[in-house]
Amino acid sequence: MPFSRLPRLILTGPESTGKSALAQALVEHLDGILVCEYLRDYFDIQGTLTLEDAIPIAQGQWVNEERGAEQASASNKLLICDTDLVSSLVYNAHYYADEMNCPLWAQWEQWAERHKRRLKNMPFQPRLYILCDVDWPWVADEQRDAPDLRPQFFNKFRAELQSQELDHLTVSGTLDERLNAVLAHLVRNCMNKA
After folding, report:
1. Is residue 156 within 8 Å of residue 86, measured between CB atoms?
2. Which is it for the CA torsion 63, 68, 70, 71, positive or negative?
3. By the number of CB atoms within 10 A of the CB, which of 3, 61, 73, 135 ranks highest?
4. In the 8-state DSSP scheme, what is residue 98?
5. What Cα–Cα distance (Å) separates residue 56 from each residue in 74, 111, 188?
6. Is the separation of the CB atoms in 20 and 136 below 8 Å?
7. Is pLDDT of 194 > 50?
8. 60 and 42 Cβ atoms separated by less than 8 Å
């Protein structure tokens, strides 16, 4: 595949919806470069999270995506990201809603707004967000805490993508069905463009 025609693929959606599994399948199928979810390692080190962690987590993901993009460009490969800034926007608004009037929230909003603007420009475009539906089996771990809120989070993710007018594709079903939906979308919408 001519990767220069393909967008960065960004997996997004609620927790335990198959994002990492689909990201890995896409990497294997397309011989891409994977940028893993920064939050997982950060949480393992910190143990708990507060609003003070919002910018370091988002910044860590951002830096890892930039490094991955350099690697993908140097090797002419597709960049596949297991989450990005959209996840931080959705989860911070949920978990820190009671802190929205404090100075730390203002700092987060300034950082987020600046980076949302950057997402609209090269080299961060084009991007295709792959929104993973909640029809994936819940797998509990030390970091996941909201199995019953997955439908509400799904709606928040979709609303965030729509409000920012970000190109996205919703996938559901088995891993193979999700993978095939993404591949078909890429062929239909990206490969046929001159």
Report:
1. no
2. positive
3. 61
4. G
5. 27, 11, 37
6. no
7. no
8. yes
Task: Give the model's pLDDT for residue 141.
Answer: 83
Write out pLDDT tens, residues 110-166: 999 998 888 887 777 788 999 999 999 999 887 788 899 999 999 999 999 999 999
The CA distance from 172 to 177, in Å, is 7
What would the two tokens of residue 170 be? 């919703």
In this structure, which amino acid lies at residue 147? Answer: P
- The confidence score (pLDDT) of residue 176 equals 98
Query: How far apart are the C-alpha atoms of 41 and 83, rounded to whole Å?
Result: 14
Residues forming a β-bridge with 8: 127
pLDDT in tens, 161-186: 999 999 999 999 999 999 999 999 99
Residues 64-100: b if buried by 16+ CB within 10 A, e if exposed: bbeebbeebeeeebbbbbbbbbbbbbbbbeeebeeee
Q: 3-state class of 68 per DSSP? A: helix
Let me know the angle formed at the C-alpha of 59 by 23 and 36, rounded to the nearest 5 degrees. Answer: 20
Residue 25: count other Cβ atoms within 10 Å of its Cβ.
18
DSSP element (H, E) containing 186: helix 175-186
